[in-house]
Automatic annotation (TrEMBL):
Protein name, entry field: Palmitoyltransferase
Enzyme Commission number(s): 2.3.1.225
Enzyme class, UniProt record, top EC level: transferase
PANTHER family, per the entry: PALMITOYLTRANSFERASE ZDHHC16
Length: 321
């Protein structure tokens, strides 16, 4: 049997990886095409000048937060990598118990408090690092073709919120023309078909996004990740689903930051470094405590509530209009 050159063996797998990377962009491209068409249908075909200001405000915030979610690179926990000597020992060792002893020795100098279900140190064989608390080797979110994590979670929540508001604005301002379409009061032009589909697409997107937005707002209020919602984090003294919950105002600030003026903009304001997290079970040095959060907790809850009251006001307006 003839020998196949190594380069030819690698070529098919490389081509498959390239195809997979290209296919991963299809959902993102689809969403961008729908948004582009909605802009054409609303601004060019419908052309309701009195609504264009608020339409463009929400469109801008939607696109801004969406692209920040897509292009924010996931953080890499390089300082949690095993030192060279320990890494060589770990790779040579075949006994799991001895490997755990090596990991425990290294983890003593790291801010790591969570464990596996068997109380072992969490270690990623792919990245060859000790897993920081709340970190996982995860896959990408299809809607954004990116991993949603510490570096872009705030952007992702804002993307869902502004996408919902964008759909609400469209439904609220188009519904009167949608009704005229069914009562045959619109001029018989091709624009009326854009109006028909614009309302349907906006309503369908809103319904599909609203449940996801509500779920992630609940996660923010509880200070949980998606994985922690399904499987409680395990600490040295056992699993605790509320291990990272610090109270509602502190939980909100962990994601959105301690300065309310940045909450509604897709700029990074989350607290921490993405590697170490405050828990309710571990004593934290006073320098790590955020006095601003303690002083302004009630104000943050109020402002957070105002934003989502405004959201539901627009929602109600869309159906009453």
């Amino acid at each position: 049997m003839p020998n196949i050159p190594h380069g030819l063996k690698m070529a098919p797998s490389h081509a498959l990886r390239c195809c997979k990377r290209a296919l991963n962009w299809i959902p993102v491209l689809f969403i961008n095409l729908v948004v582009g068409w909605s802009y054409y249908a609303y601004v060019v075909e419908l052309c309701v000048f009195s609504y264009l200001v608020i339409f463009h405000i929400f469109l801008t915030m939607f696109i801004w937060s969406y692209w920040k979610t897509i292009w924010s690179k996931p953080a890499g926990p390089s300082k949690f990598a095993l030192p060279r000597a320990e890494k060589e020992l770990y790779e040579r060792e075949e006994r799991a118990e001895t490997q755990q002893e090596i990991l425990k020795k290294v983890a003593r100098n790291l801010p790591v408090y969570t464990r596996t279900a068997g109380r072992a140190i969490r270690y990623c064989d792919n990245c060859q690092v000790i897993k920081p608390d709340r970190c996982h080797h995860c896959s990408t979110c299809e809607m954004v073709n990116n991993c949603v994590g510490f570096s872009n979670y705030k952007y992702f929540v804002l993307f869902l919120a502004y996408a919902s508001l964008y759909c609400v604005v469209i439904c609220a301002t188009v519904i009167q023309y949608f009704i005229k379409f069914w009562t045959k009061q619109l001029p018989d032009t091709h624009a009326k078909f854009h109006i028909l589909f614009l309302f349907f697409v906006a309503a369908l997107f809103f319904i599909s996004i609203l449940s996801l937005l509500g779920y992630h707002l609940w996660l923010v209020g509880k200070n949980r990740t998606t994985i922690e919602a399904f499987r409680a984090p395990v600490f040295a003294n056992g699993p605790d689903k509320n291990g990272f919950s610090l109270g509602f105002s502190r939980n909100v600030a962990e994601v959105f930051g301690d300065q309310a003026k940045y909450w509604f903009f897709p700029v990074f304001s989350s607290l921490g470094d993405g590697h170490s997290f405050v828990t309710r079970l571990v004593h934290i040095d006073p320098e790590q405590a955020n006095s601003v959060l303690q002083q302004n907790g009630k104000r943050q809850v109020f402002l957070f509530g105002v934003f989502f009251l405004f959201f539901f006001y627009l929602l109600t307006f869309s159906f009453v209009y």
